[in-house]
Amino acid sequence: MSEGWLALIQQALSLLFSLDPDVWSIVSVSFSVSLAALAITLIPSMILGFVLAFARFPGRWFATNLVQTTQSIPTVVIGLLVYLMLTRMGPLGDLKWLFTQKGMILGQMMICAPVLIAMSQAAFTSVDKRAWETSRTLGASWLRSVWLVCRELKVPLLMAIVAAFSRILTEVGCSMMVGGNIAGVTRNIPTAIALETSKGDFAQAIALGLVLLILALVLNFTLGTLRGRAEPRSL
Amino acid sequence: MVKIIANNIEMRFGSRLLYRFDRLSLAQHQTIHLQGDNGSGKTTLMKMLAGLQAPSLGEIHTEGFAPTPWWRRNPLLGKAVYLHQHPYLFDGSVAYNLNYVQPLCDMTEQEIASRTQTAIEMAQLGGLLNQRAASLSGGERQRLAIARAWIMRPHLLMLDEPTSNMDKLSQQLVLTMVSHLKQQGTGMLISSHQSCLLTGLCEQTWQIQNQAIQVSPSSLDERPFTPSQQELRYVTAN
C-alpha cells in the first residue's frame, strides 16, 4: 500500500476518533432519517407480509408481484417520484417537505417497505403450519399464536429488517434528489461520500465509508450468530 | 361432561370424497381407537374435531364447555388438544416448551407447578430441561409433546400415531401419561395403524373404510371411568 493511501486512512481514522463534528453530524442525519423510516414502516409492512402470506383474496397474486417489482425499482426513480410529489406543484407540495429530513424519510419509507413486505411474506410463507396449529390447539389466542409464529421466524424476520435498513442507509439516489445534500440538514453518509469524492476530499469519504462498513459488519455478524444457533428443524 | 359432536359430515379434497357419516361424538371418559389405511383421512378427522380444519359439509358443535368468548371466531379451537404425528416443538428449550402452556391452564399456580413437575418426572425429561427442543430424539420429542399437553389436563385429547418410531421405554412412558389422563377423565381419540400398548386402553374403535366410518361397539355408555381398570405406576429407566 502506498504512503498516500496510508496517510488517507490515518486522516480518516483521526476524523472519526477525534469526533469531528462535520463527520458525526452526517452520521447522525443518516441514522436518524433511516431509523425513522424503518420504525414507521416496520409494523405495517410486517402485517402486509403476513396478510399476503396467509390471506386468500382476489388480487393477491397481483399484489405479491407488484411488491416484488417495486423492490427492484432504482432508488433514483423513487427519488424522482417523491420529488414530483413534494415539489410545489405536486400533490404533497403544501407539506413543504422537499429538501427536508421529512421528505428524505418519506422517500426511504418507499424504498424500505417493499423489501420488508416481500421478505416478511417469504418468511411467513415458510413457517411450519404445525407451529400455528399446535399453538391454537393448546388454546392460545390468535394474537399469542401470531406472536409465537413471529418468534419461530425471528431469524428470517430479522434478516428482512437488516436488509431493509441496509438498503435505505446506503441508498444515494433518493436522498440526493429529495434531500438536496444540504450540510447539517439533509447531508447523510452516501450523499456526503459522493460529494467529498467529487471534491477530492477522500479522507472524509473514507471515514464515512468506514462507518458504513463497521455497521454492516456488526449487523451481519450479529445475524450470523443468531442464524448459527438456529438448528434445522427435523420432523 | 364435555363432548364434541359431528353431524352429517362430508369431507372432500377437491372432487375426491374422503368419507361421509351421519354422527360421531367424542366425550370425556371415552377412549377410542381410530383405524384406517394410509390416506384414509385419520389425521383430517382428528383435525376436524379439534377445529383445525373445516368439513366440506356438515356441522360440528360442542356440549358442556364454558361459553366461548365473542371474539373467538372458531368455538372448537382449544376445546380438544390435537397432537401431530410428528409433534411440533417450539424454538427454545424443553423448559420453554413446558412453560408455554402454563398461562393457558385453567388452574391455580400451585397446581400448574405441581403438574409441571409431575409431567417432567413421568416423561423423564428432568435432565433435558435446558436442552434445545430441536436437538431431542424422536421419542423424547413425543414425550415432551404429550407432557406439555398432560400439564393442561385437557378434557379431550387426540393423539395421531403417538407411538410410531418409539423405543419401548418411550412407549411405556407415554402409556403411563396417557393412562393418567384416562384416569382423570380425559376423552381420547388415538389413531394407530396397528394395535399397540395405547390401543389396549381403548373401549371403542372407529374404522375408516370405504369412505365411511364404522363404529364398534356401536354404542358406548358415557359413564364415569373407574380408575381400577389400569394399574398406574411410574416407569423408571432400566
Topology:
The complex is a heterodimer of chains A (235) and B (238).
Chain A: H1 3-17, H2 21-54, H3 60-71, H4 75-86, H5 101-125, H6 129-137, H7 142-152, H8 154-170, H9 173-179, H10 189-199, H11 202-229
Helix pairs in contact in A: 1-11, 2-5, 2-8, 3-5, 4-5, 4-9, 5-8, 5-9, 6-7, 8-11, 10-11
Chain B: E1 3-13, E2 16-27, E3 31-36, H1 42-49, E4 57-63, E5 80-83, H2 94-100, H3 109-122, H4 138-152, E6 156-160, H5 168-183, E7 187-191, E8 204-209, E9 212-216
Parallel strand pairs in B: 3-7, 3-8, 5-6, 6-7
Antiparallel strand pairs in B: 1-2, 1-4, 8-9
Helix pairs in contact in B: 2-4, 3-4, 4-5
Subcellular location (chain A): Cell membrane
Family (chain A): Belongs to the binding-protein-dependent transport system permease family.
Organism (chain A): Shewanella loihica (strain ATCC BAA-1088 / PV-4)
Describe this structure in words.
The complex is a heterodimer of chains A (235) and B (238). Helix content of chain A is 77%, strand content 0%. Chain A is mainly α. Chain A has a single domain, classed as MetI-like (MetI-like fold). Chain B has 238 residues and is of the alpha/beta class. Chain B has a single domain, classed as P-loop containing nucleotide triphosphate hydrolases (Rossmann fold). Helix content of chain B is 25%, strand content 26%. The longest helix of chain B has 16 residues. At the A-B interface, helix 6 and helix 7 of A face strand 5 and helix 4 of B. Chain A: This is Binding-protein-dependent transport systems inner membrane component. Chain A: InterPro entries: ABC_perm_TupB-like, MetI-like, MetI-like_sf.
